[in-house]
Design a protein that fits this description.
alpha/beta, Peroxisomal Thiolase, Chain A, domain 1, 2 domains, five-stranded mixed beta sheet, four-stranded mixed beta sheet, 13 strands, 24% strand, binds oxa(dethia)-CoA
Length: 331
Protein backbone atom coordinates (compact mmCIF):
# COMPACT_ATOMS: atom_id res chain seq x y z
CA UNK A 1 0.00 0.00 0.00
CA UNK A 2 1.35 3.40 -0.90
CA UNK A 3 2.01 5.91 1.88
CA UNK A 4 -0.48 8.77 2.32
CA UNK A 5 1.21 11.98 1.26
CA UNK A 6 0.28 15.63 1.70
CA UNK A 7 -0.24 17.14 -1.74
CA UNK A 8 -0.50 20.76 -2.78
CA UNK A 9 -3.97 21.00 -4.37
CA UNK A 10 -3.95 24.73 -5.10
CA UNK A 11 -1.77 27.83 -4.91
CA UNK A 12 -2.65 31.51 -4.87
CA UNK A 13 -0.19 34.38 -4.84
CA UNK A 14 -0.66 38.03 -4.05
CA UNK A 15 1.41 41.19 -4.36
CA UNK A 16 0.18 44.68 -3.48
CA UNK A 17 -0.62 47.08 -6.29
CA UNK A 18 2.00 49.76 -5.57
CA UNK A 19 5.35 49.28 -7.29
CA UNK A 20 8.76 50.67 -6.31
CA UNK A 21 11.12 50.68 -9.29
CA UNK A 22 14.90 50.87 -9.40
CA UNK A 23 14.50 54.32 -10.99
CA UNK A 24 12.50 55.50 -7.98
CA UNK A 25 15.13 54.09 -5.60
CA UNK A 26 17.76 56.11 -7.48
CA UNK A 27 16.02 59.23 -6.17
CA UNK A 28 15.96 57.93 -2.57
CA UNK A 29 19.47 56.52 -1.96
CA UNK A 30 22.82 56.56 -3.73
CA UNK A 31 22.28 53.62 -6.07
CA UNK A 32 21.63 52.89 -9.73
CA UNK A 33 19.43 50.65 -11.81
CA UNK A 34 22.66 49.22 -13.24
CA UNK A 35 24.03 48.27 -9.78
CA UNK A 36 20.77 46.76 -8.54
CA UNK A 37 20.13 44.83 -11.77
CA UNK A 38 23.65 43.47 -12.15
CA UNK A 39 24.26 42.69 -8.42
CA UNK A 40 20.78 41.29 -7.58
CA UNK A 41 18.63 40.80 -10.73
CA UNK A 42 15.84 42.93 -9.25
CA UNK A 43 14.03 45.50 -11.44
CA UNK A 44 11.09 46.36 -9.17
CA UNK A 45 9.29 45.31 -6.02
CA UNK A 46 5.71 45.68 -4.77
CA UNK A 47 4.99 47.66 -1.61
CA UNK A 48 1.95 47.48 0.66
CA UNK A 49 0.52 50.98 1.09
CA UNK A 50 -2.73 52.18 2.59
CA UNK A 51 -4.00 53.22 5.99
CA UNK A 52 -4.45 50.26 8.34
CA UNK A 53 -3.25 47.61 5.87
CA UNK A 54 -0.97 44.86 7.19
CA UNK A 55 0.27 41.30 6.62
CA UNK A 56 -3.13 39.78 7.41
CA UNK A 57 -4.75 41.84 4.63
CA UNK A 58 -2.37 40.32 2.09
CA UNK A 59 -3.04 36.91 3.67
CA UNK A 60 -6.79 37.48 3.32
CA UNK A 61 -6.41 38.13 -0.42
CA UNK A 62 -4.32 34.96 -0.89
CA UNK A 63 -6.56 32.71 1.17
CA UNK A 64 -9.82 33.99 -0.34
CA UNK A 65 -8.39 33.38 -3.81
CA UNK A 66 -7.20 29.92 -2.79
CA UNK A 67 -10.59 28.92 -1.34
CA UNK A 68 -12.33 30.05 -4.54
CA UNK A 69 -9.85 28.25 -6.76
CA UNK A 70 -10.03 24.98 -4.82
CA UNK A 71 -13.80 25.25 -4.38
CA UNK A 72 -13.43 25.08 -0.62
CA UNK A 73 -15.77 26.69 1.90
CA UNK A 74 -14.14 28.50 4.85
CA UNK A 75 -15.90 26.04 7.19
CA UNK A 76 -13.94 23.11 5.74
CA UNK A 77 -10.50 24.49 6.65
CA UNK A 78 -8.95 22.71 9.65
CA UNK A 79 -5.67 24.56 10.15
CA UNK A 80 -3.93 27.66 8.82
CA UNK A 81 -0.19 28.18 9.25
CA UNK A 82 1.39 31.52 8.44
CA UNK A 83 5.12 31.77 7.81
CA UNK A 84 6.18 35.37 8.31
CA UNK A 85 8.60 37.62 10.18
CA UNK A 86 6.48 40.72 9.58
CA UNK A 87 3.15 39.74 11.09
CA UNK A 88 0.59 42.38 12.04
CA UNK A 89 2.05 42.60 15.54
CA UNK A 90 4.75 40.93 17.67
CA UNK A 91 1.76 39.16 19.21
CA UNK A 92 -0.80 37.82 18.69
CA UNK A 93 -0.10 35.71 15.63
CA UNK A 94 -1.23 36.65 12.12
CA UNK A 95 -2.62 33.22 11.14
CA UNK A 96 -5.69 33.57 13.35
CA UNK A 97 -6.21 37.16 12.20
CA UNK A 98 -6.27 35.93 8.59
CA UNK A 99 -8.84 33.27 9.58
CA UNK A 100 -10.96 35.97 11.22
CA UNK A 101 -10.83 38.22 8.16
CA UNK A 102 -11.69 35.34 5.79
CA UNK A 103 -14.41 33.83 7.99
CA UNK A 104 -12.60 30.56 8.74
CA UNK A 105 -14.23 29.50 12.00
CA UNK A 106 -13.63 25.77 12.52
CA UNK A 107 -9.85 25.94 12.47
CA UNK A 108 -6.84 26.86 14.56
CA UNK A 109 -3.72 28.62 13.39
CA UNK A 110 -0.28 29.79 14.33
CA UNK A 111 2.71 31.57 12.85
CA UNK A 112 6.10 30.12 11.99
CA UNK A 113 9.16 32.35 12.20
CA UNK A 114 11.94 31.00 10.00
CA UNK A 115 12.52 34.07 7.82
CA UNK A 116 13.21 33.15 4.18
CA UNK A 117 12.91 29.43 4.97
CA UNK A 118 9.55 30.00 6.66
CA UNK A 119 7.44 28.61 3.84
CA UNK A 120 9.53 25.39 3.65
CA UNK A 121 9.34 24.89 7.41
CA UNK A 122 5.59 25.63 7.52
CA UNK A 123 4.99 23.29 4.58
CA UNK A 124 6.78 20.56 6.52
CA UNK A 125 4.65 21.19 9.62
CA UNK A 126 1.39 21.35 7.67
CA UNK A 127 2.22 18.14 5.80
CA UNK A 128 2.64 16.21 9.06
CA UNK A 129 -0.94 17.05 10.11
CA UNK A 130 -2.23 15.80 6.75
CA UNK A 131 -0.02 12.69 6.45
CA UNK A 132 -1.06 11.47 9.91
CA UNK A 133 -4.74 12.07 9.16
CA UNK A 134 -4.96 14.52 12.08
CA UNK A 135 -6.29 17.28 9.79
CA UNK A 136 -7.79 17.16 6.26
CA UNK A 137 -7.50 20.64 4.78
CA UNK A 138 -4.48 22.67 5.83
CA UNK A 139 -3.59 26.07 4.40
CA UNK A 140 0.05 27.16 4.45
CA UNK A 141 0.66 30.87 3.90
CA UNK A 142 4.10 32.38 3.27
CA UNK A 143 4.18 36.17 3.18
CA UNK A 144 6.10 39.20 4.30
CA UNK A 145 5.66 42.96 4.40
CA UNK A 146 9.38 43.68 4.30
CA UNK A 147 8.73 47.38 3.62
CA UNK A 148 7.57 47.64 7.25
CA UNK A 149 11.06 46.81 8.58
CA UNK A 150 13.30 48.45 5.98
CA UNK A 151 15.36 51.59 6.44
CA UNK A 152 14.82 53.42 3.15
CA UNK A 153 18.03 55.36 3.70
CA UNK A 154 20.14 52.15 3.82
CA UNK A 155 21.01 51.24 0.22
CA UNK A 156 22.46 47.85 1.22
CA UNK A 157 19.05 46.52 2.28
CA UNK A 158 16.23 48.70 0.94
CA UNK A 159 16.82 47.79 -2.71
CA UNK A 160 16.58 44.04 -2.12
CA UNK A 161 13.26 43.37 -0.45
CA UNK A 162 9.59 43.62 -1.43
CA UNK A 163 6.13 42.70 -0.13
CA UNK A 164 4.00 39.73 -1.16
CA UNK A 165 3.58 35.98 -0.87
CA UNK A 166 1.20 33.13 -1.45
CA UNK A 167 -0.88 30.37 0.07
CA UNK A 168 -1.19 26.68 -0.74
CA UNK A 169 -3.81 24.08 0.18
CA UNK A 170 -2.53 20.74 1.50
CA UNK A 171 -4.71 17.62 1.30
CA UNK A 172 -4.13 13.87 1.55
CA UNK A 173 -3.13 12.01 -1.58
CA UNK A 174 -2.77 8.27 -2.23
CA UNK A 175 -1.52 8.37 -5.84
CA UNK A 176 2.14 9.01 -5.05
CA UNK A 177 1.98 12.75 -5.72
CA UNK A 178 2.72 15.07 -2.80
CA UNK A 179 5.55 15.94 -0.41
CA UNK A 180 8.08 13.12 -0.54
CA UNK A 181 11.11 14.19 1.52
CA UNK A 182 12.93 17.15 3.02
CA UNK A 183 16.29 18.17 4.45
CA UNK A 184 15.82 21.09 6.86
CA UNK A 185 18.60 22.75 8.84
CA UNK A 186 19.29 25.57 11.30
CA UNK A 187 22.33 27.29 12.83
CA UNK A 188 21.60 29.88 15.51
CA UNK A 189 25.05 31.40 15.17
CA UNK A 190 23.72 32.95 11.97
CA UNK A 191 21.65 35.34 14.09
CA UNK A 192 24.62 37.71 14.20
CA UNK A 193 24.62 38.28 10.43
CA UNK A 194 20.93 38.79 9.61
CA UNK A 195 18.54 40.19 12.19
CA UNK A 196 16.49 43.03 13.58
CA UNK A 197 18.47 44.29 16.53
CA UNK A 198 15.71 45.59 18.79
CA UNK A 199 12.03 45.21 19.58
CA UNK A 200 12.33 41.77 21.20
CA UNK A 201 13.16 40.73 24.77
CA UNK A 202 16.90 41.15 24.17
CA UNK A 203 16.59 44.86 23.42
CA UNK A 204 13.04 46.02 24.11
CA UNK A 205 11.90 49.10 22.22
CA UNK A 206 13.20 52.30 23.80
CA UNK A 207 13.96 55.84 22.75
CA UNK A 208 17.57 54.70 22.40
CA UNK A 209 16.82 51.72 20.11
CA UNK A 210 14.75 54.00 17.92
CA UNK A 211 17.43 56.68 17.80
CA UNK A 212 19.98 53.98 16.87
CA UNK A 213 17.86 52.73 13.94
CA UNK A 214 17.65 49.25 15.48
CA UNK A 215 14.14 48.36 14.28
CA UNK A 216 15.16 47.63 10.71
CA UNK A 217 16.67 44.70 8.81
CA UNK A 218 20.39 44.37 9.53
CA UNK A 219 22.36 42.17 7.13
CA UNK A 220 26.00 41.36 6.50
CA UNK A 221 25.37 40.65 2.84
CA UNK A 222 28.56 38.90 1.75
CA UNK A 223 28.53 36.46 4.69
CA UNK A 224 24.87 35.63 4.11
CA UNK A 225 25.53 35.21 0.38
CA UNK A 226 28.25 32.58 0.95
CA UNK A 227 26.22 30.61 3.49
CA UNK A 228 23.14 30.77 1.25
CA UNK A 229 24.92 29.25 -1.74
CA UNK A 230 26.54 26.53 0.36
CA UNK A 231 23.40 25.75 2.40
CA UNK A 232 21.01 25.47 -0.53
CA UNK A 233 23.46 23.52 -2.69
CA UNK A 234 24.30 21.00 0.05
CA UNK A 235 20.70 20.32 1.11
CA UNK A 236 19.56 19.91 -2.50
CA UNK A 237 22.44 17.48 -3.12
CA UNK A 238 21.61 15.45 -0.01
CA UNK A 239 17.93 15.32 -0.97
CA UNK A 240 18.77 14.27 -4.54
CA UNK A 241 21.14 11.53 -3.43
CA UNK A 242 18.81 9.86 -0.99
CA UNK A 243 15.84 10.02 -3.39
CA UNK A 244 17.77 8.89 -6.46
CA UNK A 245 17.06 12.19 -8.24
CA UNK A 246 19.20 13.43 -11.13
CA UNK A 247 19.27 16.75 -12.98
CA UNK A 248 17.31 15.01 -15.75
CA UNK A 249 14.61 13.65 -13.48
CA UNK A 250 14.00 16.97 -11.69
CA UNK A 251 11.47 19.02 -13.66
CA UNK A 252 11.80 22.24 -11.65
CA UNK A 253 14.17 23.71 -9.11
CA UNK A 254 12.41 26.40 -7.05
CA UNK A 255 15.00 28.49 -5.18
CA UNK A 256 14.35 31.26 -2.68
CA UNK A 257 14.56 34.54 -4.64
CA UNK A 258 17.19 36.52 -2.71
CA UNK A 259 19.67 37.36 -5.44
CA UNK A 260 19.94 36.16 -9.06
CA UNK A 261 23.67 35.57 -8.46
CA UNK A 262 22.89 33.24 -5.54
CA UNK A 263 20.38 31.35 -7.72
CA UNK A 264 22.88 31.13 -10.58
CA UNK A 265 25.66 29.96 -8.21
CA UNK A 266 23.46 27.19 -6.77
CA UNK A 267 22.47 26.06 -10.27
CA UNK A 268 26.15 26.12 -11.36
CA UNK A 269 27.25 24.13 -8.29
CA UNK A 270 24.62 21.51 -9.11
CA UNK A 271 25.32 21.75 -12.85
CA UNK A 272 21.56 22.28 -13.16
CA UNK A 273 20.13 23.99 -16.30
CA UNK A 274 18.70 27.49 -15.68
CA UNK A 275 15.76 26.74 -18.05
CA UNK A 276 14.33 24.51 -15.30
CA UNK A 277 14.87 27.04 -12.49
CA UNK A 278 11.87 29.13 -11.46
CA UNK A 279 12.78 32.83 -11.38
CA UNK A 280 10.64 35.89 -10.67
CA UNK A 281 13.04 38.02 -8.60
CA UNK A 282 13.07 40.73 -11.30
CA UNK A 283 9.34 41.32 -10.64
CA UNK A 284 9.09 41.12 -6.85
CA UNK A 285 12.55 41.29 -5.24
CA UNK A 286 13.03 39.22 -2.09
CA UNK A 287 9.67 38.76 -0.34
CA UNK A 288 11.26 36.57 2.39
CA UNK A 289 8.69 33.84 3.30
CA UNK A 290 6.72 34.79 0.19
CA UNK A 291 9.13 33.88 -2.61
CA UNK A 292 8.48 30.13 -2.95
CA UNK A 293 4.66 30.23 -3.13
CA UNK A 294 4.92 33.22 -5.50
CA UNK A 295 7.12 31.12 -7.80
CA UNK A 296 4.73 28.15 -7.73
CA UNK A 297 1.85 30.54 -8.49
CA UNK A 298 3.66 32.17 -11.43
CA UNK A 299 4.64 28.81 -12.96
CA UNK A 300 1.42 26.94 -12.08
CA UNK A 301 0.31 26.87 -15.75
CA UNK A 302 3.42 24.89 -16.70
CA UNK A 303 3.17 22.24 -13.95
CA UNK A 304 1.82 18.72 -14.54
CA UNK A 305 0.86 15.88 -12.19
CA UNK A 306 3.94 13.83 -11.34
CA UNK A 307 6.43 16.64 -12.02
CA UNK A 308 9.43 16.32 -9.72
CA UNK A 309 9.92 19.65 -7.95
CA UNK A 310 12.69 20.60 -5.53
CA UNK A 311 12.17 23.71 -3.41
CA UNK A 312 15.13 25.25 -1.59
CA UNK A 313 15.61 28.27 0.67
CA UNK A 314 18.06 30.00 2.96
CA UNK A 315 17.43 32.78 5.44
CA UNK A 316 17.66 34.39 8.84
CA UNK A 317 18.41 32.18 11.79
CA UNK A 318 20.26 30.86 9.88
CA UNK A 319 17.61 28.49 8.54
CA UNK A 320 17.76 26.56 5.30
CA UNK A 321 16.74 23.41 3.52
CA UNK A 322 15.31 21.62 0.52
CA UNK A 323 12.01 19.82 -0.05
CA UNK A 324 11.13 17.28 -2.72
CA UNK A 325 7.55 16.99 -3.91
CA UNK A 326 5.64 15.57 -6.84
CA UNK A 327 3.14 18.05 -8.27
CA UNK A 328 -0.43 16.80 -7.97
CA UNK A 329 -2.68 18.64 -10.45
CA UNK A 330 -3.13 20.47 -13.73
CA UNK A 331 -4.43 24.01 -13.49
O1 LIG B 1 16.90 36.26 1.83
C1 LIG B 1 17.61 36.17 3.03
C2 LIG B 1 19.02 35.97 2.78
N1 LIG B 1 19.62 37.12 2.15
C3 LIG B 1 20.43 36.94 1.12
O2 LIG B 1 20.57 35.84 0.65
C4 LIG B 1 21.19 38.13 0.60
C5 LIG B 1 22.64 37.77 0.41
N2 LIG B 1 23.49 38.86 0.02
C6 LIG B 1 23.39 39.50 -1.17
O3 LIG B 1 22.52 39.24 -1.95
C7 LIG B 1 24.44 40.51 -1.52
O4 LIG B 1 25.51 40.41 -0.59
C8 LIG B 1 23.93 41.98 -1.56
C9 LIG B 1 22.98 42.17 -2.72
C10 LIG B 1 23.22 42.31 -0.24
C11 LIG B 1 25.09 42.94 -1.74
O5 LIG B 1 25.80 42.61 -2.92
P1 LIG B 1 27.37 42.40 -2.88
O6 LIG B 1 27.80 42.16 -4.26
O7 LIG B 1 27.67 41.35 -1.86
O8 LIG B 1 27.88 43.82 -2.43
P2 LIG B 1 28.82 44.17 -1.22
O9 LIG B 1 28.05 44.16 0.07
O10 LIG B 1 30.08 43.38 -1.30
O11 LIG B 1 29.15 45.70 -1.58
C12 LIG B 1 29.92 46.03 -2.76
C13 LIG B 1 29.87 47.53 -2.94
C14 LIG B 1 30.15 48.32 -1.64
O12 LIG B 1 30.90 49.45 -1.95
P3 LIG B 1 32.47 49.50 -1.69
O13 LIG B 1 32.65 49.22 -0.23
O14 LIG B 1 33.05 48.40 -2.55
O15 LIG B 1 32.84 50.87 -2.10
C15 LIG B 1 28.77 48.71 -1.21
O16 LIG B 1 28.77 49.88 -0.42
O17 LIG B 1 28.56 47.92 -3.39
C16 LIG B 1 28.09 48.97 -2.54
N3 LIG B 1 26.65 48.89 -2.47
C17 LIG B 1 25.84 49.53 -3.34
N4 LIG B 1 26.11 50.34 -4.38
C18 LIG B 1 25.07 50.83 -5.07
C19 LIG B 1 25.88 48.18 -1.61
N5 LIG B 1 24.58 48.37 -1.89
C20 LIG B 1 24.54 49.20 -2.96
C21 LIG B 1 23.47 49.75 -3.72
N6 LIG B 1 23.79 50.55 -4.75
N7 LIG B 1 22.19 49.50 -3.45
Amino acid sequence: MSRTLAAITGVQGFVPEDVLTNAQLETMVETSDEWITSRTGIKKRHILKGEGLAASDMGKEMVEGLLKKTNTSPDEVDLLLCATITGDRVFPDTANTICDKVGIKNAFGYDINAACSGFLFALSTGAKYVETGARKKVIVVGLDVMSSILDYSDRTTCVIFGDGGGAVMLEASDDGNGLIDEVLRGDGNGRHFLNMKAGGSLHPTSAETIANNEHFVYQEGRTVFKHAVRGMTNTVKELMERNGLTNDSIDWLVPHQANIRIIQSVADALDFPMEKVMINIHEYGNTTAGTLPLCLWNYEDQLKPGDNIVLTAFGGGFTWGATYLKWAYTK
